[in-house]
């Protein structure tokens, strides 16, 4: 590998690699279901892009790739077809995914045993293997091209631009997509102040949840006097239900590396640190490979591309502490200490790692930087809304059909996300709420469906953007139990340093336990509010300051549900075990014994052809009997 | 430095830049309550985690309430310290703290002196609206310090003191969240760790979580026993602290009343430890000159510098951390112990009573002295030279039991023949005092002339490390003085690495010297209390007619009648001691390991130990890399038992309590071996909403274990995980490195079978 010693070297390499990419970047707006004819320049060659990361990998995409390659060999098509492992396509509900380019055929839920048939059908018979194409349930038709899918149409992939496009373990593929061109540009054509001004004008705000103007943070760090300075990438992604950063790191690690180097140039830092959670070993490995590749190419290290700018990146592990997503706790963790937050001010930009100015930014924030540099602030700030520019990556999960990773312009509504992109509620159930912002956020309901998604509107509605996790809940989810779940999480993850969070959240949790076990009172509902507000007002760090949000938000939006729990000892969603009773109506029961057989804890007794009875002390309220009964004899209260 | 103008509670305040809102408020008579905050400027102690949140205030323009102890004033700031929002917040926080606190005020050792009581009372708390579970811990009783951690309010003062000031690190924050507490590595008794018993943690604890070990009951029993002769001896630091406890000004030395009080309590004889201080000077001064002579003669084993040994906290520190410096310690016992030996041998003979009939009770400012009197060397055939030590606060209690109105007591004199002392003995209580006393005598003995001055100002004051060169008639004698163990460590390091050339070194473990000891009446953060105590001692010294130890006629008589010569055979037998290498895991120097199979300790093989050291070395033994190191170590060994943590602490040169505090903070680290196939069920929101709990239940059902446990055959262990980021494929379960997606309870059996078949 030749070292890239000047921007001209980089340009040369880019041009020589361009061909690699063009085959993957075909017409994004083809006519629906039109026949595809491969342009002559591709010489009948094809590439199979297979997601090899995250959930797809767990679904045996490794083996799938192997089987595809052997099928190709079997058919003698090695010269014509290449299999490339890529990062996340985002459509996790339909994974594992195989995308054929240049025709943009999107095969879904592909199993290793499908490999032979897929290769044979698509390349030998030259037909589409329909059974593996995406079936749009609403229109009851098969859709071949992802650009036509309601999941993808509204999306705009900037941070995820390379995920699903390139092999994340190939720096050449990254360069072929204009990788490191932004770094070359800033190093040779702009002053740090000019670059910072560009970022400020782009309107980019922190994507980790804080929403702080990114350019401003870079400026403050630049102005800080102490030295040396550090750049830190917050890859802790602790929010349960969030996997945006993971996908970016696994699918396009170089984008983060490039952005960190750009930040170093702007702020005056020569050392970058990526703090990455231990639960992401694949992302760590991918990052390690990318860093060593970048170093080999001379894009990290001393005198990058012939300038006097030097920059290195090291990796620091997290070890299973949600609170370490908070920047001061993160910094202390990097210093080898307990992840306890410290009072701000002073802010890390002035006094951070080892007491020196430290610029902490989230993975997704960084992933946007190279594009902003190359396409300009003016291009970027036309996307989104007035106060929230650009796009946001969301992790759509829960009771929704199209679970996965999406990137949409700010200002899109919840309705468009849930019913458009998300494909509506799973199993035809009724939408109840969507939780945004993880344990720091609140829930939005039916009445918020037409809310444009941006930092300030979400906060005004009692929730927050957070890092981008969106959990959809349906009629079977009890909102009190949801608040209890989140508080349980907070209590476990609180660092324990300050009184309001350490003790207050525990008390909130205890009150919620009381309520979900039928011992709550109306007074408890008042206490939840009062205590919740004090905890928000007085906690030392963001974790405590936002931890009561799930409680306060559900109290606001689902007060009736709470009231049912405390005044009637009833759980309307039939989720709280102590308030739910499964009962067999003796008038309808035929004694078929099906329920008794399916009960996982043997709570149902009865003779054949005689009425069965459920023992409420053993019953775990799993609902299996209700599902199985063909006579509608089982009721839930 | 500019000034800043701001408004606090409608008052205009002008302060220098860098002032906190708390300080600024104080300057205009606004006293914002605090709990965790404590600052002792001259002693370089500052504990300001900003974590109790009692001192929060409202700042216009800030969304949240801010801690006034940490927030710096800014131009134009508008602060409200007690509007309804702030008051409600402050009182709610107090209720929360109280909801996790034992309600034992009436029987608590801190009743009447407790900072929590004070603030709760000021805030008018009448009910706890949010009662709930209270975190409890097992109590710990050691020879000198008692811990009742149920009462800890996590103010972090003790942790800061033990680590930042004393550099001992016996205690640190451990565990996480509601169960976090300040304790030792593995939560074991402090007796088993590297605590030096300096007692500084006790001195600054706001509540009754830390205290001294009580000997009051035993002393009361002994006083009531008419078959015993009960003898008291009093340290200099006690007489200068006692008055304030009874409402007198703290800049008075109340010796006369103290003696009367002791007689009122029932002591048969009251002697003065200052006498023994003079005696110590005779012995130690002679010892120093002997070593200096060896040095001048070029003898190899000169054992210079000589380090004072009257402070048991310091002696512990040396034995545990710097055993290579043991030979430098003076072999002289401390004044307390010398007095005990003299009473039990010389005085007992005078009384014609066997030594077992004599009970020596020493009144000390110190907690470590309780441990010192129990040292092996300090008794004869099971009868200790000093039977009991009572610290000043215990003495205050005894005086109260005796229904004595302290202020109206008459002045009394000490008893003979062990009650006379010079000013040199008196100043033993302040940092630099011992050295000054040594110099006053050593000069005369060495040069044959009296010292030109008596007050050696350069040896006084609160600077952490004082260095001085005294001209002994042409010979330059270099002296070093440290107070606080952090400063002592610096001195010790400089001696070891040859960067200093002291001839003699004085160390007092307590910042300020003995006057700031762990057994003294609480200063509650008021530095002036400590300063006044020191000033009073130097004053008392100045007012004495005899100011040099060797001029003490009673001391001279003791030598003539009984001891012979300083450092002679009788002195050596009675007044000198020896020390042992008691190096514990403190992470400073290579440690001797005792990996035995007793008590469930595991035996690490030599190759494992080597591998562990190699891992640490790969990260340059850098404490900042602790987490990366623990990951690698856990990868190798499978878990992190005590033996492994000790090695990491040793290699990185950090306290074991710090390593343990990190291990117990992060979920990834485990101290129990996991099963061969560790199962982690993701309970992140997305997985939870899609039924992860039922999957977990099925695992529990089939394996018959609870979360956190391992199956009896060691094959599987079960844990919960919060989000692996595969939410699109929820619910997710990991078994080892293998990931299972879209899990249902029905699939659990198949997953297990995958591994049973291996």
Task: Describe the fold and architecture.
The complex is a heterodimer of chains A (about 625) and B (about 750). Chain A is α/β, with parallel strands linked by helices. Chain A is built from 24 helices and 19 strands. In chain A, strand 3 (about 100) and strand 4 form a beta hairpin. In chain A, helix 9 runs parallel beside helix 11 (about 280-295). Chain A starts with 6 loop residues before the first helix and ends with a strand. Helix content of chain B is about 35%, strand content about 15%. Chain B is built from 27 helices and 26 strands. In chain B, the strands form 8 sheets. In chain B, strands 2-1-7-5-6 form a 5-stranded mixed beta sheet, sandwiched between helices. In chain B, strand 1 and strand 2 (about 10-15) form a beta hairpin. In chain B, helix 10 (about 275-295) packs across helix 16 (about 435-445) and helix 21 (about 605-620) runs antiparallel to helix 22. At the A-B interface, helix 2, helix 9, strand 11, strand 15 and helix 17 of A face helix 2, helix 22, helix 25 and helix 26 of B.
Mean pLDDT of chain A: 92
Q: Between the first and last Cα atoms of chain B, what is the distance in angstroms?
A: 73 Å
Give the end-to-end Cα distance of chain A, rounded to a whole number of Å: 69 Å
| Strand order within the widest beta sheet of chain B | 2-1-7-5-6
What does the secondary structure layout of this molecule look like, with pairings?
The complex is a heterodimer of chains A (637) and B (758).
Chain A: H1 7-22, E1 46-51, H2 54-58, H3 61-74, E2 81-86, E3 98-101, E4 105-107, H4 115-124, E5 134-136, E6 141-143, H5 171-176, H6 181-189, H7 192-202, H8 214-223, E7 230-235, H9 244-251, H10 253-267, E8 271-276, H11 281-296, E9 312-317, H12 327-334, E10 358-362, H13 363-375, H14 377-380, E11 391-398, E12 404-409, H15 414-421, E13 431-436, E14 443-445, H16 455-460, E15 469-474, H17 479-493, H18 499-516, H19 522-538, H20 542-546, H21 549-557, H22 559-567, E16 582-584, H23 594-598, E17 604-605, E18 613-614, H24 624-628, E19 634-636
Parallel strand pairs in A: 1-2, 7-8, 7-10, 8-9, 11-15
Antiparallel strand pairs in A: 1-3, 3-4, 5-6, 11-12, 13-14, 13-15, 16-19, 17-18
Helix pairs in contact in A: 3-4, 6-10, 6-13, 7-8, 9-10, 9-11, 10-13, 17-18, 17-21, 18-19, 19-21
Chain B: E1 3-8, E2 11-16, H1 21-27, E3 38-40, E4 45-47, E5 56-59, E6 66-67, E7 78-80, H2 84-99, H3 115-122, E8 140-141, E9 145-147, H4 157-165, E10 172-174, E11 181-183, H5 200-204, E12 210-212, H6 216-223, E13 229-234, H7 236-239, H8 242-245, H9 255-265, E14 269-272, H10 273-296, E15 306-307, H11 312-321, H12 335-351, E16 358-364, H13 368-372, E17 379-380, E18 383-384, E19 388-391, H14 392-401, H15 423-426, H16 433-447, E20 465-472, E21 475-483, H17 485-496, E22 504-508, H18 527-542, H19 553-563, H20 569-575, H21 606-618, H22 626-637, H23 642-652, H24 656-663, E23 677-682, H25 685-689, H26 692-703, E24 716-721, E25 733-735, E26 738-740, H27 745-756
Parallel strand pairs in B: 1-7, 13-14, 13-16, 15-22, 16-19, 21-22, 23-24
Antiparallel strand pairs in B: 1-2, 3-4, 5-6, 5-7, 8-9, 9-12, 10-11, 17-18, 20-21, 23-25, 25-26
Helix pairs in contact in B: 10-12, 10-16, 21-22, 21-23, 23-24, 26-27
């Amino acid at each position: 590998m030749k070292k890239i010693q000047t921007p001209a070297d980089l340009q040369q390499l880019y041009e020589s690699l361009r061909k690699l990419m063009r085959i993957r970047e075909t017409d994004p707006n083809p006519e629906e279901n039109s026949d595809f004819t491969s342009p002559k320049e591709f010489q009948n060659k094809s590439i199979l892009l297979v997601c090899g990361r995250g959930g797809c990998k767990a679904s045996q995409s490794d083996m799938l790739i192997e089987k595809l390659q052997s099928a190709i060999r079997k058919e003698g098509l090695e010269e014509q077809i290449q299999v490339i492992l890529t990062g996340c396509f985002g459509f996790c509900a339909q994974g594992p995914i195989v995308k054929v380019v240049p025709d943009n055929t999107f095969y879904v839920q592909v199993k290793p045993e499908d490999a032979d048939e897929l290769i044979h059908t698509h390349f030998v018979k030259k037909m589409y293997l329909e059974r593996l194409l995406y079936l749009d349930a609403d229109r009851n038709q098969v859709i071949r091209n992802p650009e036509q899918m309601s999941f993808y149409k509204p999306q705009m992939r900037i941070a995820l631009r390379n995920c699903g496009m390139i092999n994340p373990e190939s720096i050449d593929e990254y360069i072929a997509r204009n990788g490191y061109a932004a770094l070359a540009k800033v190093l040779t054509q702009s002053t740090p102040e000019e670059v910072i001004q560009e970022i400020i004008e782009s309107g980019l705000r922190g994507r980790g949840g804080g929403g702080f103007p990114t350019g401003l943070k870079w400026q403050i760090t630049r102005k800080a006097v102490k030295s040396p300075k550090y750049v830190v990438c917050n890859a802790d992604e602790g929010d349960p239900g969030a996997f945006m950063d993971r996908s970016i790191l696994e699918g396009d690690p170089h984008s983060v590396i490039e952005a960190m180097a750009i930040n170093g140039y702007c702020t005056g830092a020569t050392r970058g640190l990526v703090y990455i959670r231990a639960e992401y070993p694949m992302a760590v490995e991918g990052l390690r490979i990318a860093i060593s590749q970048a170093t080999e190419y001379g894009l990290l290290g001393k005198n990058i591309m012939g300038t006097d700018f030097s920059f290195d990146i090291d990796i620091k592990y997290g070890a299973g502490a949600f609170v370490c997503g908070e920047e001061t706790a993160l910094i202390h963790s990097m210093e080898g200490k307990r992840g306890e937050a410290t009072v701000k001010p002073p802010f890390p930009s002035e006094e951070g790692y080892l007491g020196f100015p430290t610029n902490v930014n989230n993975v997704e924030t960084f992933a946007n930087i190279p594009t902003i540099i190359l396409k300009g602030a003016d291009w970027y700030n036309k996307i989104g809304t007035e106060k929230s520019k650009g796009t946001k990556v969301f992790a759509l999960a829960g009771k929704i059909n199209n679970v996965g990773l999406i990137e949409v312009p700010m200002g899109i509504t919840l309705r468009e996300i849930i019913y458009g992109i998300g494909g509506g509620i799973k199993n035809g159930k009724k939408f109840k709420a969507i939780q945004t912002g993880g344990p720091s956020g609140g829930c939005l309901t039916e009445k918020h469906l037409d809310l444009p998604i941006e930092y300030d509107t979400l906060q005004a509605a009692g929730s927050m953007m957070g890092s981008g996790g969106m959990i959809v809940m349906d009629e079977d989810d009890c909102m009190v139990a949801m608040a209890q779940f989140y508080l349980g999480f907070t209590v476990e993850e609180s660092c324990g340093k300050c009184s309001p969070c350490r003790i207050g959240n525990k008390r909130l949790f205890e009150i919620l336990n009381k309520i979900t076990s039928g011992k709550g009172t109306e007074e408890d509902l008042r206490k939840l509010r009062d205590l919740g507000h004090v905890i928000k007002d007085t906690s030392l760090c963001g974790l405590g300051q936002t931890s009561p949000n799930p409680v306060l938000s559900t109290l606001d939006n689902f007060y009736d549900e709470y009231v049912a729990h405390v005044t009637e000892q009833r759980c309307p969603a039939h989720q709280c075990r102590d308030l739910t009773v499964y009962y067999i109506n003796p008038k309808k029961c035929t004694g078929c014994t099906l329920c008794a057989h399916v009960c996982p804890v043997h709570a149902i007794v009865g003779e054949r052809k005689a009425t069965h009875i459920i023992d409420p002390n053993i019953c775990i309220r799993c609902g299996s009997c209700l599902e199985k009964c063909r006579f509608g004899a089982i009721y839930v209260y | 430095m500019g000034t800043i103008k701001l408004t606090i509670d409608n008052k205009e305040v002008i302060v220098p830049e860098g002032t906190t809102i708390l300080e600024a408020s104080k300057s205009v008579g606004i006293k914002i309550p605090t709990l965790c905050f404590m600052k002792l400027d001259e002693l370089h102690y500052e504990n300001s985690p900003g974590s109790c949140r009692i001192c929060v205030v409202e700042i216009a323009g800030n969304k949240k309430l801010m801690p006034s102890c940490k927030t710096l004033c800014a131009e134009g700031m508008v602060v409200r310290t007690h509007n309804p929002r702030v008051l409600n917040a402050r009182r709610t926080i107090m209720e929360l703290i109280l909801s996790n606190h034992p309600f034992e005020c009436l029987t608590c050792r801190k009743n009447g002196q407790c900072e929590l009581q004070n603030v709760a009372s000021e805030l008018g708390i009448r009910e706890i609206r949010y009662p709930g579970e209270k975190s409890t811990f097992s109590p710990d009783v050691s020879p000198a310090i008692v811990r009742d951690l149920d009462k800890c309010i996590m103010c972090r003062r003790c942790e800061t003191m033990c680590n930042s000031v004393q550099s001992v690190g016996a205690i640190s924050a451990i565990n996480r969240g509601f169960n976090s507490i300040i304790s030792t590595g593995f939560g074991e008794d402090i007796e088993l760790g590297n605590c030096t018993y300096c007692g500084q943690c006790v001195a600054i604890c706001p509540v009754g979580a830390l205290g001294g070990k009580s000997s009051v009951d035993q002393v009361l029993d002994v006083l009531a026993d008419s078959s015993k002769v009960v003898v008291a001896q009093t340290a200099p630091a006690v007489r200068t602290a006692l008055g304030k406890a009874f409402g007198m000004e703290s800049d008075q030395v109340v010796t006369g009343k103290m003696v009367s009080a002791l007689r009122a309590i029932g002591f048969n004889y009251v002697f003065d430890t200052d006498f023994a201080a003079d005696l110590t000077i005779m012995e130690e001064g002679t010892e120093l000159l002997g070593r200096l002579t060896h040095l001048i003669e070029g003898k190899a084993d000169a054992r210079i510098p000589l380090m004072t040994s009257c402070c048991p906290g310091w002696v512990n520190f040396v034995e545990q951390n710097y055993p290579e410096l043991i030979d430098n310690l003076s072999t002289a016992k401390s004044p307390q112990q010398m007095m005990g030996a003299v009473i039990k041998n010389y005085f007992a003979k005078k009384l014609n009573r066997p030594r077992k009939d004599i009970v020596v009770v020493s009144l000390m400012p110190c907690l470590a002295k309780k441990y010192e009197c129990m040292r092996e060397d300090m008794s004869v055939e099971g009868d200790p030279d000093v039977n009991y030590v009572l610290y000043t606060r215990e003495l205050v209690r005894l005086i109260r039991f005796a229904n004595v109105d302290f202020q109206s007591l008459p002045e009394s004199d000490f008893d003979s023949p062990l009650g006379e002392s010079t000013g040199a003995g008196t100043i033993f209580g302040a940092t630099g005092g011992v050295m000054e006393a040594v110099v006053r005598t050593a000069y005369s003995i060495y040069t044959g002339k009296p010292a030109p001055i008596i007050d050696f100002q350069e040896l006084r004051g609160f600077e952490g490390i004082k260095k001085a060169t005294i001209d002994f008639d042409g010979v330059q004698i270099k002296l070093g003085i440290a107070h606080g163990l952090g400063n002592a460590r610096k001195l010790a390091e400089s001696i070891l690495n040859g960067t200093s050339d002291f001839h003699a070194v004085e160390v007092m473990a307590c910042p300020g010297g003995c006057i700031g000891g762990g057994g003294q009446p609480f200063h509650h953060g008021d530095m002036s209390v400590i300063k006044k105590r020191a000033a009073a001692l130097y004053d008392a010294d100045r007012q004495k007619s005899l100011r040099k130890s060797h001029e003490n006629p009673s001391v001279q008589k003791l030598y003539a009648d009984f001891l012979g010569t300083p450092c002679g055979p009788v002195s050596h037998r009675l007044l000198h001691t020896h020390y042992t290498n008691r190096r514990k895991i403190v992470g400073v120097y290579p440690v001797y390991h005792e990996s035995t199979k007793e008590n469930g300790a595991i035996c690490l093989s030599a190759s494992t130990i080597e591998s562990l050291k190699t891992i640490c070395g790969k990260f340059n033994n850098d404490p900042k890399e602790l987490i990366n190191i623990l990951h690698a170590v856990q990868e190798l060994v499978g878990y992190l038992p005590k033996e492994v943590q000790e090695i990491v602490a040793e290699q990185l040169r950090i306290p074991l309590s710090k390593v343990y505090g990190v291990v117990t903070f992060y979920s990834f680290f485990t101290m129990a071996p996991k099963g061969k196939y560790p199962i982690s069920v993701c309970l992140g929101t997305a997985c939870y909403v899609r039924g992860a709990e039922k999957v977990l239940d099925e695992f529990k059902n089939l394996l018959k274990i609870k979360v956190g446990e391992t199956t009896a055959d060691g094959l599987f262990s079960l844990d919960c995980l919060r989000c692996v980021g595969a939410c699109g494929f929820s619910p997710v379960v990991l078994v080892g490195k293998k990931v299972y997606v879209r899990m249902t309870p029905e699939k659990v059996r198949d997953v297990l079978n995958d591994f049973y078949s291996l």
